Amino acid sequence: MRIIRSVLTLVMALVAFGGITAVSALPAQASTAAISCSGSVTDRFAHPSGLGELVIYYNSTNGGTNSACFYHRGAAAGVAAPTYVIIHRCAETSGEGGPCTIRATGGPDSGNFSSYAGPVGVTGTANYCVAAYGHIDWRGTRYALNSGRQGCPN
């Protein structure tokens, strides 16, 4: 017990006096404070099954912020099911619909949701394309939507 207490005291002292610096190796992400499933809808993709819809939003804060949500629709609306959404800022500035070379990621948000997954978001998108992906697992089948590059400035 004394050893644990001594180690904890040492760690707390190092943190208090700046002897330890936390470093994150995660990809660049947007601040969650600015991310919501609102703003200008730039793209929406409905799954042919009618069970889900992937929506991409944009606002001009933080050098351009795009967010995405994957909504339950049709028979899945209001029913808990595994749902997932992620958004990326691409390296590309043109070529809507094409594949995305990922430069930053927002999300994912994943869980057993009854309405939607998200919001997830990424900043610094004013001069770049974005791409989003979402899915719902419904009665043993995955219904997925991939936007490809969208919102490209050129």
Description of the molecule:
This protein is mostly beta strands and 154 residues long. It has one domain (27-146): Immunoglobulin-like (Sandwich). Helix content is 10%, strand content 44%. The protein has one helix and eight strands, in the order αββββββββ. Strands 1-2-3-6 form a four-stranded antiparallel β-sheet, with no helix packed on it. It has a four-stranded antiparallel β-sheet with strand order 5-4-7-8, with no helix packed on it. The longest helix has 15 residues, at 2-16. The radius of gyration is 20 Å and the shape is globular. Mean pLDDT is 84; it is low at 1-33. It comes from Actinokineospora iranica. Keywords: Signal. This is Spore-associated protein A. Residues 1-30 form the signal peptide.
How would you describe this structure in keywords?
single chain; 154 residues; mainly beta; Immunoglobulin-like; 4-stranded antiparallel beta sheet; 44% strand; disordered N terminus
